[in-house]
Amino acid sequence: MAKSFLSIERLTQQFPDGQGGTLTVFENASFGIEKGEFVCILGHSGCGKSTIMNILAGLAEPTSGVVKMDGFEVSGPSLDRGVVFQNYSLLPWLSALKNVTFGVRARYPDWSKSKVEDHAREYLAMVGLDGDVVHRKPSQLSGGMRQRVSIARAFANHPKLLLLDEPFGALDALTRGTIQDELLKIWSGTEQTVFMITHDIDEAILLADRILLMTNGPFARVAESVEITIPRPRNRTEIIEHPNYYAIRNHLVQFLGTRSKELAGKKSDEADNRPETVRIDKTATAPAEADPEPAARLRAVND
Amino acid sequence: MLDNLSVNQRAALLSVVMLVVGLLFWETAIPAQKAAAELTEYERLTGGGAPKAGVPPPSQVIAKAWEQLSNPFYDAGPNDKGIGIQIGYSIYRVLTGYILAAMVAIPLGFLIGMSQVAYKAFNPFIQVLRPISPLAWMPLALFVIQDSEASAIFVIFICSIWPMLLNTAFGVAGVREDWVNVARTHELGSFRTAFTVILPAAAPTIITGMRISIGIAWLVIVAAEMLVGGTGIGYYVWNEWNNLDLTSVIFSILMIGVVGMLLDAAFGVLQRAVAYAE
Ligand SMILES: Nc1ncnc2c1ncn2[C@@H]1O[C@H](COP(=O)(O)OP(=O)(O)OP(=O)(O)O)[C@@H](O)[C@H]1O
Ligand SMILES: [Mg+2]
């Protein structure tokens, strides 16, 4: 298989379990993400999604295994990998605007003060924050507003890889929809690669080129990689009419409902735990099949 | 009628009532000196007619305060200086020792807070040195430094260093990892991380330490100046006691309280400025 833009090779993570033993969150997990791809990962709470993301971000060291981006091993965090943390991680002593300019200044140190501020305001406006709100401190913002500031901070930095940990979790359906659209707009206009954790199946189908499915922990595995065979641009109301929509959705629901448990807790005997590729396409003449060695994937048509 | 007042107004009213009652009680509790004509033969022979050094009534203290505060900066020789000059000396010593202590304690506290090794290495020394009464250093300081002024400053330095050191270390060690991760994902160097993330995050704890330190320094300077003498509010209290001028003693005690309160209030303002809600 050709080297992916981001390749995760035999990642194992163990933690002390608090009773003197070790807790193996996942073992020998391997998968790849192509340049420009939008990948979502689904799995039950506690299976290790945030742990994987922290390793991809370079914030945590895995017990063993390597992550390579563009052929180089990831060691430590980088501005090329922007993170939206699960708990927003805004700096509470700075206003919303200052939280964003904090990031922009780090990314573009030679920009003038006003250019940094304009850029930050542009991204805040993109997530629906403008006017006086931008001068409020995080403690004076609602959970959803905080999340949006955190999204603006990551997007404003144009990282090559965006790592999003449940970025829309605290948003109401309407705001969520708007920001999903913004995210797709930003992503499709650039060469950015997105790796996103979510608990929302419909959101994952709407956004992703591919969905990774994780079994329950401990010894969680990235068991399947489900291709979303619905052409772009996708639209919230139209995709549900696509013949593949419910087929894919049912597959995902069924995985999370039953198979994530059945597959859980199995130690890997083989060295490499690669996800099985699942391609469900009712529009094609060929029946749905599992393809263990997919060819290098092309970016899905999105315009 | 009281119901119409706000909590603050009611509290202020109560404070004034307590003050007036207290002063009246004090004023009436002091027995007036007997006139010489009323003294018996025996009393006159035993010296009872000489004015006795008693606790002065508040009216005298207030008169003294008025007299002193209307000309606080006069200087009529080594044993007769205005209260303003004396307090000025004390504040100068406190601030010098205190600023020197902050210059050592805050960087060192950063180091101890950031590094487990540094914490473990420094901890035994801190634990032994911290409980030592600052005045216990005085003889050693006088001997080594050979200068009473510098020794007083040293004593302030040594007493104000500990709360600042420990609070800085505690504040820095307690900075949420999430915030440090924000700095890391933005590739900030350690210097910029320290100034733009750790310092503001730990600032409320650090300022609390500084506030405790300035309070202790102000307590200690009075005692230190009683020992080294020469100038300062502590020396002034002691000198007036030697003169048996209790009015001045009481007045200067009040001034020590007022200055201490102002120093504390200044740090209170600073504390509010750096506070943040999570
Ligand atoms: N620092 C740590 N020390 C010990 N155990 C940890 C640590 N971090 C995570 N874990 C454990 O690893 C497992 C995976 O945690 P993780 O946060 O990755 O879950 P998650 O999939 O992101 O869950 P959620 O969807 O609820 O966010 C959990 O069982 C958790 O208890
Ligand atoms: Mg998580």
Automatic annotation (TrEMBL), chain A:
Region entry Disordered, spans: 264-303
InterPro entries: AAA+_ATPase, ABC_transporter-like_ATP-bd, ABC_transporter-like_CS, ABC_transporter_ATP-bind, NO3_transporter_ATP-bd-like, P-loop_NTPase
Biased composition, class Low complexity, residue ranges: 283-293
A single GO cellular-component term on record: plasma membrane
Annotated membrane topology: Peripheral membrane protein
Chief location bin: membrane
PROSITE patterns: ABC_TRANSPORTER_1, ABC_TRANSPORTER_2
Keywords: ATP-binding, Cell membrane, Membrane, Nucleotide-binding, Transport
Biased composition (Basic and acidic residues): 264-282, 294-303
Gene3D superfamilies named in the record: P-loop containing nucleotide triphosphate hydrolases
Residues covered by the ABC transporter domain: 6-241
Matches recorded under Pfam families: ABC_tran
GO molecular function (one): nitrate transmembrane transporter activity
Protein family: Belongs to the ABC transporter superfamily.
Name assigned to this protein: ATP-binding cassette domain-containing protein
Source organism per UniProt: Kangsaoukella pontilimi
